[in-house]
Design goal:
With 313 residues, the chain is α+β, with helices and mostly antiparallel strands. It has a domain at 1-212. Helix content is 31%, strand content 24%. The protein has helices at residues 21-43, 48-60, 105-112, 122-131, 142-153, 226-232, 234-243, 248-261; strands at residues 7-15, 81-87, 92-99, 119-120, 175-180, 186-192, 212-214, 218-224, 266-272, 277-281, 285-291, 296-298, 308-311. The strands form two sheets. It has an eight-stranded mixed sheet with strand order 4-3-2-6-5-1-11-12. The radius of gyration is 18 Å and the shape is globular.
């Protein structure tokens, strides 16, 4: 098999533009550090699925982002996290919905890749965590708890929490990793704490093919308002259009033009089997970074009105 130059793109949420340049710089540094560490593993020959899980773990461990440690709280003050993982080579999806008390929901999704029952909800996910002897972890940070307390004191007049904990103006968060490895295999992973301040038990798109999807042709991870992503079936729509022969740039341009007309609020990242790296957003800002071997960069300074972009190999 001819070796492929690995590619990786990650995201840490989508939402309003960040006015705080110091916060923007810190987010850029975090994203670049994580994407570089994923790419180093790819250069060492690690497979796409393993690198995707590793990247999600790094983002989940960073309290700046709304996944794992640092997840937002639902309206009852509890954290309920969801994660999805898809192996493009086998076209195999796994995920957990509204799990609690674990550091890395993506670990549960990864274990379920080899299970006949590949998507578990709250009770089943908790039982799996016990079976795997995962340590019990409280993912709530002081900042997230303060955010929830402030919301309660304001008569609960907000509809969602912030994607970036240090900036309460920034909303709509989820993390994601999309990888093409040296053997030409694709994978996508997505993890989230949800919208935040929502009705207890509300389910996000992260553990659905609408928000995370991959096959041998393309892999996509989404971020933003989960209900909007589900309504557009965004990840699967993009992958299917690319699989059916539409160029990745055209697939993103068409899908995000449709989304803009429908007044959706979200973003997405992708890699194709040809090594094209793509992104799209209807939000003002998409917190994403990529590494394609010879070039790396991010989407943090892009025009707030720009919908899509492609970085070719």
């Amino acid at each position: 098999m001819t070796e492929t130059i690995p590619k990786v793109i990650i995201h840490g949420g989508a939402g309003p533009a960040l006015a705080d340049q110091s916060a923007l710089g810190a987010i850029r540094q975090d994203l670049h550090t994580i994407v570089a560490s994923i790419y180093q593993r790819l250069q060492q020959g690690a497979p796409a699925l393993d690198c995707t899980v590793y990247g999600c773990q790094q983002l989940e461990a960073n309290p700046r982002f709304n996944a794992g440690y640092g997840s937002v709280l639902q309206s009852d003050g509890q954290v309920r996290m969801s994660a999805g993982l898809m192996d493009g080579a086998r076209q195999s999806f796994s995920g957990v919905i509204n799990t609690t008390g674990v550091a890395h929901p993506i670990d549960l999704a990864a274990f379920l890749q080899s299970s006949c029952d590949r998507v578990l909800a709250e009770t089943g996910a908790a039982e799996l965590a016990r079976e795997l002897a995962l340590p019990l972890v409280d993912p709530r940070t002081a900042l997230r708890l303060q955010e929830w307390i402030a919301w309660r004191q304001q008569d609960a007049d907000q509809t969602m929490a912030g994607v970036v904990a240090e900036d309460p103006r920034a909303r709509r968060g989820t993390i994601g990793v999309v990888v093409l490895d040296g053997q030409g295999q694709l994978a996508a992973g997505t993890s989230t704490g949800g919208r935040g301040l929502e009705r207890p038990g509300r389910v996000s798109d992260a553990a659905m093919p609408a928000g995370n999807y991959a096959n041998p042709f393309a892999a996509v991870s989404c971020t933003g308002i989960g209900e909007d992503i589900i309504d557009e079936c965004l990840a699967a729509r993009l992958v299917i259009r690319i699989s059916d022969g539409m160029g990745v740039g055209s697939a993103f341009a068409l899908s995000f033009a449709e989304a803009a007309r429908n007044q959706r609020d979200f973003g997405a990242i992708a890699v194709t089997r040809q090594g094209e790296v793509a992104w799209g957003k209807t939000s003002a800002m998409l917190l994403a970074a990529y590494h394609i071997g010879t070039t790396w960069g991010d989407t943090l300074d892009l025009d707030t009105g720009l919908l899509t972009g492609v970085v070719c190999p």
